[in-house]
Amino acid sequence: MKLTDVIRRPLITEKTSLLREDGRTIVFEVAIGANKIEVKRAIESLLGAKVESVRTTISHGKIKRQGRFAGRRSDWKKAYVKLREGAKMPEFLEGA
Amino acid sequence: MKTEFLDVSETRKTVRVEIPSTAVDAEIDRIAAEYSRKARIPGFRPGKAPARVIKQRFKDQILHDVAHDMIPRAVDEALRERGVEAVDSPDVQDVIIEAGQPLTFTASFDTVPEFDPGDLAAIAFKRASPGINDEAVDLAMQRLRDRGARHEPVEGRGVDHGDTLTVDLERSDPGGAPDTHNDVSIELGAKANPPGFDEQLLGLEASATKSFTLHYPGDYPIGELANTDVSYTVTVKALKRRILPELDDEFAKDLGVDSLDALKTRVREDLEHEAKHAAEREDRSELMKQLAAKVPFDVPTSMVGREIDRRLEDFARRLVDQNVDPRQAGIDWNAFRESQREVSREAVAAALVLDEVTRREKLDVSDEEVEGEVVKYAERTGRTPAAVRAALEKEGGLSRIYAGLRREKSIDFVMARATITGDS
C-alpha cells in the first residue's frame, strides 16, 4: 500500500477535540487495509511528526434502508495517533 | 483608533481609519461566540463546537460581520472627533480585515463646511406685482362665455364659417384603404382640420354629399400624411351653430352668482388670488436664486444627485397620476437628468444657506406649531387631528413637518431682512 493512500482525513468531532487537549493525540480516518505500522510510517513521513503509538479500530458501516431496499455503508478504520512527547502538532491541523 | 483626514476638495473629504488588532480580535471573538451558539457542525452537538473550529469554518462570514459592525461605528466616531458632519452615508473602500491584523479602510464623504451667509440685507429684489387689469377680467369672462356656449340647429341655409356639422365621413388613404366614420362632429375653422378641408364644405346644405381630394402640404405636422393626396366623401347630416350666451344677469345666475357685477367681482377676486400666489412664487424663486449665489463652495455632488433623483421621482409620480407609464412615455431620462442638474444645484445651495441661517439664528419650531400644522392638515382632509397625527407618526412624517416649518421660518426670516423694493 502506498503511504499517500493510508491517511484519508483527520476526524474533527467533540470526542477528538477532547482527546487533543493533551496536545498530542490526533485521530484520522485511514484506509481499512492499513495497519498500525503503515499508519505510523505515513504520519511520520507525510506530516513530519514522531509517533509514539497508534491504536486502531474498525467502525462498522450502518445499514441504511430506502423503503424496501436495504443497503450497507462501508466499514472504515479509525486511527488514534499519539505523538511523541514534545513533538510539534502538524500545522494544517492546528486550527481544526 | 488612528484616523487620517484628507481634503479632496472643500466639500469632499476622505478619512483613512486604522482600528488596532486587539479591538478587531475582541470583536471577532464576540461574533464567533454568537455563531457557535447556533452553528450546526458535523461531529458536534449544536453549541458544543469549540471557538477555533467555528472561526475556521465561518471565517468569511465572521470577518464580514465584524467589518459591518465596526466600520460604521468607527466612521461615526472619527467624524464626531473631527466635528464634521457627512451629508450622505460615507462611501467605504479598501477594507482590509484579517484576524490578528489591524482593520484599515478609507471612507470618502461629502460635508458642508461652515460658511457665512453674509449680510441678508444685501439680498435685494423687486417684488413682483400681482396687478390685474380689466383686460384679464374680460378675457376670463369671455372664456366663461365660451364654456357656456350651446349648439342650436340651423335650417334653411348652407354651411358657413363657425358652424358645427354632424357628418358621415369616408376617407381613403394614399394606400387606398377606405376608412369610414359615422356621425362625426366637425367644427369649421378648428385648427385640427386638414388644410383646405373647411373651404370644400362651405355652402353645403343638410343631407348633401360631396367628394373631393385634398393635398397635404409637405410640412404637415403629421409626418405620414405630409405630401399625400387623400380623397374624402362627406355627407352632411345636420348643421348646428354655436350660440354664445349673452353676458347678463341671467348668465350669472346660471353660474350660481346673483348678478353680472357679482360674477365680475368673483372673477376678479379669483384672478387676483391667483396672481398673488404667482407673484409670491416668483419672489421666492428670486430669493432662492440669490441665496444660492451666496454659497462660497461647490455644492456637494451627492446632494445635487439626491435632489435630481427627488425631482425625477416627483415627475414620474405626476406622470403616473395622469395615467402615463413613465417607462413608455418616450422621455430621454438621461437628458432630462442633465436638464435638472443646474436647477437642482441651485435648490440645494439655497437650502444650504437657509439651513445655515436657521443654525445661526437658532430658529426652531415648537411642538405647538407642529400641532397647529397637523390640525390644519386634518381640517383640509376632513379627519381628526389625532388620526392624522397617528398616521404621520407611523410613516415618520412628523419630522418632515418639522423640517418644512423650519424651512418656512428661515425663508420668512430672510424675507424680512432682505431689501425688497416693489410697487405694492
Description:
- The complex is a heterodimer of chains A (96) and B (424).
- Chain A is of the alpha+beta class.
- In chain A, strand 4 and strand 5 form a beta hairpin.
- The longest helix of chain A is centred in the middle third of the chain and has 12 residues.
- The two termini of chain A are 28 Å apart.
- The mean pLDDT of chain A is 87.
- By secondary structure, chain B is of the alpha+beta class.
- Chain B folds into three domains: 109 residues, Trigger factor ribosome-binding domain (Alpha-Beta Plaits); 94 residues, Roll (Chitinase A, domain 3); 143 residues, Trigger factor, C-terminal domain (Trigger factor, domain 2, Orthogonal Bundle), CATH 1.10.3120.10.
- Chain B has twelve helices and eleven strands.
- In chain B, the strands form three sheets. In chain B, strands 6, 7, 8, 9 and 10 form a five-stranded antiparallel sheet that branches. In chain B, strands 1-2-4-3 form a four-stranded antiparallel sheet.
- In chain B, a hairpin with a 5-residue loop joins strand 7 and strand 8.
- Chain B is elongated and about 105 Å long.
- The mean pLDDT of chain B is 78.
- Chains A and B meet through helix 1 of A and helix 2 of B.
Total tally of structural domains of chain B: 3
Shape of chain B: elongated
Count all strands of chain A and give the number: 6
Number of strands of chain B: 11
Keywords:
heterodimer; A: 96 residues; alpha+beta; four-stranded antiparallel β-sheet; two-stranded antiparallel ribbon; B: 424 residues; Trigger factor, domain 2; five-stranded antiparallel β-sheet; 12 helices; 11 strands; 19% strand; elongated
